[in-house]
Amino acid sequence: VGPEITKNDLVGAYCSLLKDPEAEVRAAAASKLKDFCNNLPADTREQIIMSQILPCVKDMVGDMNQHVKSALASVIMGLSPILGKDNTLEHLLPLFLNQLKDDYPEVRLNIISNLECINEVIGVRQLSQSLLPAIVELASDAKWRVRLGIIEYMPLLAGQLGPEFFDEKLSSLCMSWLTDHVFAIREAATNNLKKLVEKFGRDWAQNTVIPKVIQLARDQNYLYRMTCLFAINVLAEPCGQEVTQRMMLPTVITLVSDPVANVRFNVAKTLHRIYPVLDSSVLASHVKPALDKLSQDGDHDVQYFASEALEKVIEAL
């Protein structure tokens, strides 16, 4: 409809919808905040947002309805690039920090999941002091889906915070997820480690991640010994041949004689997965004998996976 009608009629109509007595209407209006503001006429965009839309948004941050707050939290970060650094610091940052302390985990999660927008404008370090307590709290939330959401944003956060800051504040959190009681969390945690190693490099992996992963192989709980194997599966490729052979392979080989059949057949699957990374002399001296032993195992599943892996290893020799 063009800039005039937008300015004179649509902005007022949109603000009314943001204040609608029905929560569903407010939530629907809130979810369109970023799109609506992006499409305002460029020459008056900032002025319209600051004078008419932002006051409504400030009220919505304290809305009684969690769906309204959640919808707002998923898009509010998108105002940062439109309003620029000074306005973000002065007007938006206090709103983000408020939302990071919200009672509803979905609201906090939606803010954290949209950090890229604000990082481009003010840098995540401005947020980090307020951000970390919220992340730590969400990381141990009783709802496993909330914990899962946080894990998925870890690599993004890691890239923005850098290795020193990350190690100091968040690396122990990432390792604690490997022993979560929900399998989906443990699985996501191993994939998360792979992404972190790709971001921070092999030296970081050797010092920070691998020693803690190897420690799980000695855990009393067989599920955690299996998590150790799952982690080695995904870490072998980004860590490369030398690190895999020196630090991780010996641990896999020790689990060949694990008392639990589930662990033993996962040893066979792990050797199947990581053999392309290994040197042929190591395949002959360590991997083949281990698989030979497993293919004679008393458990049919262990025999099956060991024979499958052995075939591939013999081809590679």
Quick overview:
With 317 residues, this protein is an all-alpha fold.
- The CATH architecture of the domain at 1-115 would be Alpha Horseshoe
Look at the structure and give the mean pLDDT.
Answer: 91
Structural class label: mainly alpha
DSSP helical segment count: 18
Shape descriptor reads elongated
The percentage helix is: over 70%
Write the CATH homologous superfamily of the domain at 1-115.
Answer: Leucine-rich Repeat Variant
Give the biggest sheet.
none
- Find the CATH topology of the domain at 1-115: Leucine-rich Repeat Variant
How many beta-strand runs?
0
- Stretches with pLDDT under 50, minimum 5 residues: none
Give the ordered list of helices and strands.
HHHHHHHHHHHHHHHHHH
CATH class of the domain at 1-115: Mainly Alpha
Note the gap between the termini. Answer: 70 Å
What is the gyration radius calculated from CA atoms?
A: 26 Å
Beta-strand residue fraction: under 5%
